[in-house]
Amino acid sequence: MPVKQLQSMVYASLMAALIAMGAYIHIPLGPVPIVLQNLFVPLAALLLGSRWGSISVAIYLFAGAMGIPVFAGAKGGLAHFLGPTGGYLLGFLLAAWVTGSIAEHSAERPVAILLAVTFGMLTIYAVGVPWLKYAAGLTWSKAVLVGMVPFLVGDVFKAGAAVVLARALKPMVTRQLRPTSS
Amino acid sequence: MADRLMLHYFPGNTPLHHWDARCKFPGLMIVTLSLLQMDVPSLVLFTLVFFAAFGVARLPGRALLLSGKPWLLFLAIIFIVQVFFQHPSFWDLPHVKAAGIVCWRLALMLAYAILFTLVTKPREMQDAITWFLRPLPFLPARRIAMMVSLTVKFLPLLLDQFAEVQLAVKSRMGNRSGRSLRHIKTLCLPLFRRSFIRCDELALALAARGYREDLPLTLPRIRLFHVLALLLVGVVALAGALLN
To answer: CATH assignment of A3-176?
Structure first.
């Protein structure tokens, strides 16, 4: 296997571990907790691109599904995908792809990267809120009020942090991912 | 290396160490699934089963303490938030009890996951995942197994590196600047830089050892008593459900 592919594989695993660490730092308010996962999900996509970013999220979800305690609140298990927050978990996967795809076509412009992260975060809610509505039996307004509104202010900061971190770390990753041989 | 043993394998020669990982995985899944719906009597049962399993595995209590320590504060925060912020009329007994049950349940989920990683070699975990995924077409089973195993390996490594960077910042009095954003930056960037260098070293080590994905998986047949042990886990989970 080429070294570059092995490097991408190891980097994606590291980002999956970082997403898990982001889930450990969480504040359980209401049915959907405040977590740092949605800071590391766009960061993975910005650093590794849409393909490997999505793969890192998929690996994170798979590890959680197997019972390893990597979800918010150090939980794990397949049942979490069927619970009220299952949509957010699946939304992470789509968000990584959306963020990575937009960023790849933006020629590294900060505004475009911010836009990519914003669309990525909206994707999480686009999947998570309807899921929450049906899983918890809420009305649309209640689902938006409980599953989206309380997190928007925090998300603005997280989006800003993701862009700043991505701009600082991208040269490091690009340098490290430069193949030494194939 | 810091003294964190979180999600590390602890060598041993006990039935739990020898239990086939292809049965241990479904066992862990059954336990985490059943814990979600449990109340006090079944939680007591699962706590007793956990300590019995921990005793059978002959693991030092220090290993559990070191693995669980990072989560103690986190469980305490969950408890406080559940008691004080979830209900308008906080600090009455039913709410404290409900918060306690949530934390107990979480602590048990964590404890079982820690026990699983303490008695399962990363190689066995990797082989078991490959074995489970092999029948699914279009999925690179070996690659997925390797990546999951790396993710689990990175969790304690990241904590270690974070502790080291934090110590380095403290020794340079970087934590006294009073500017929290600057402090976060001085912590984050070295942490990421170190992690990326470690990733690079790992990838080169894998390449140097000739990592291949096309090698056939040769695992022995699962023995009957391994399956019987899995059935026993199922029976305990059923008993827990009936106790509720």
So the answer is: 1.10.1760.20
